[in-house]
Design goal:
The chain is an all-alpha fold. It is built from 21 helices and no strands.
Length: about 425
């Protein structure tokens, strides 16, 4: 069978199954079974994909995933981050868009403790949006910053999706986690700059309000009590990986244990919190691992059927520069992000894109980081970005989906600027991983 016909058959079947509402993991499994029968020798092919499932799920590089998810679940259910946001709030002076800026700082802070963009957005939305509404903030300044900063968990470690992407691209897990730090904080800086400048030019979007002064000693005390322990967790995860003292798996275990111990010390840990955290971890991890298994087998079927080789030959034969091919790939991902969740779109794209990336001799760590930024953008891309619906769920009752879409667009533009900067200046992503070496 011609490789183009093979690719059309497999991708067409995948698209059809997803359009009729089949879960992504089940769609992958059905396509993999059909592909194994057609291209891997029938019954022997089925046996082979079962063996491949075991091999893909027992990869050591995936071990940090459930541990990082557990860390974020404990942080979410024990509500440790709320006091840290209150302590941070005391240090912000009379700046235009003060609460919007607080949500961005809070998002960056939560991103260093939780790899879940959904949890970060839900927490910040529930905590800050009601206060913003009460103080007369426009929806563009209450909803937008929270959706933007919620997505920072995709880039700033610990990021479960960064680990999955590293495993699928067969690159250093620690390297990709560290590579997300500078782009993540650059994104947060652009968000903050946009909020301050726009609120300075249009003060009615975020009316100033009188804040009671807090003595410096009280601010310092609050920071030591509520922010320092979180800084310790950040060091256990990011610091030890960067210094080469611990592997990502060891750092994830230390971070999870540290989060649980801090919750116990602060009296926020009980049986209900631990049960909710473990159940949440199991649900998220099992879903992600099922999709990973399907994607890895899908990529093997593409390779064995000759579709991967055909794609490479076609792309190399085009009269396009490598950078134009890279831009075309990102445009495809942005389009997919309008209609499906970020994990699904990347799992479908990686088996097709990765051989092309290797053939064009792109740095795979750099390419994976660009894909992470694209995944972060997919969370707030209309009409079906997941964070859009999370934000709608915690927003005031008079909020429409159009309000949510409009609020997220300026922050999508900031994401696009960061993506372009990383493409033009690869050292933004590669500088810290190179220091690790």
């Amino acid at each position: 069978m011609d490789w183009s016909l093979t690719l059309t058959l497999l991708l067409g079947l995948m698209a059809l199954l997803m359009l009729i509402g089949t879960p992504v993991a089940v769609a992958f499994l059905i396509v993999d079974v059909i592909g194994a029968i057609l291209f891997l020798g029938g019954e022997m092919g089925i046996i082979q994909i079962i063996l491949n499932m075991k091999e893909s799920l027992t990869s050591f590089s995936l071990l940090p995933v459930p541990l990082f998810i557990l860390m974020g679940e404990v942080m979410f259910h024990s509500k440790l981050g709320f006091k840290a946001i209150d302590a941070t709030d005391q240090w912000i002076g009379k700046i235009p868009g003060r609460l919007s800026l607080l949500s961005i700082i809070g998002g960056a802070l939560f991103s260093t403790m939780s790899g879940s963009t959904l949890a970060t957005t839900s927490i910040l939305g529930s905590l800050l949006v009601p206060d913003m509404e009460k103080r007369g903030y426009h929806k563009s300044m209450s909803l937008g910053p929270i959706m933007g900063s919620g997505g920072l968990s995709m880039l700033i470690p610990p990021s479960a999706l960064a680990i999955l992407l590293a495993a699928l691209n067969q690159i250093s897990v620690g390297g990709l986690l560290i590579a997300g730090i500078l782009p993540g904080f650059l994104m947060a800086f652009l968000y903050g700059s946009y909020v301050v400048i726009r609120c300075h030019l249009q003060p009615h979007l975020a009316p100033p309000y009188q804040q009671e002064p807090v003595p410096v000693l009280d601010r310092i005390k609050g920071s030591i009590i509520h922010i320092f322990p979180i800084g310790l967790i950040i060091f256990l995860v990011i610091g030890l990986i960067f210094l080469g003292v611990a592997t990502p798996s060891e750092a994830a275990a230390l971070g999870s244990m540290g989060t649980i111990l801090i919750a116990i010390v602060y009296g926020q840990m009980n049986f209900a919190v631990m049960k909710a955290s473990i159940m949440g971890t199991l649900k998220i991890t099992s879903m992600m691992f099922m999709i990973i298994t399907g994607s890895m087998i899908f990529s093997q079927i593409l390779a064995f059927s000759g579709a991967s080789a055909g794609i490479i030959e076609t792309v190399i034969g085009l009269d396009l520069s490598p950078i134009m091919v890279l831009i075309a790939m990102q445009c495809v991902l942005l389009f997919l992000g309008c209609f499906m969740d970020n994990l699904s779109m990347v799992m479908i794209a990686i088996p097709i894109f990765l051989p092309v990336v290797e053939a064009l001799h792109f740095n795979t760590l750099w390419f994976a980081l660009i894909m992470l930024i694209n995944m972060e953008m997919a969370n707030t891309t209309p009409p079906f970005g997941l964070l859009l619906f999370v934000m709608k769920g915690v927003a005031p009752k008079n909020t429409t989906m159009i309000d949510v879409y409009k609020a997220g667009i300026p922050f999508l533009m900031c994401d696009a600027v960061v993506m372009i900067l990383v493409m033009v200046f690869p050292q933004i992503a590669l500088y810290l991983p190179e220091l690790m070496k």
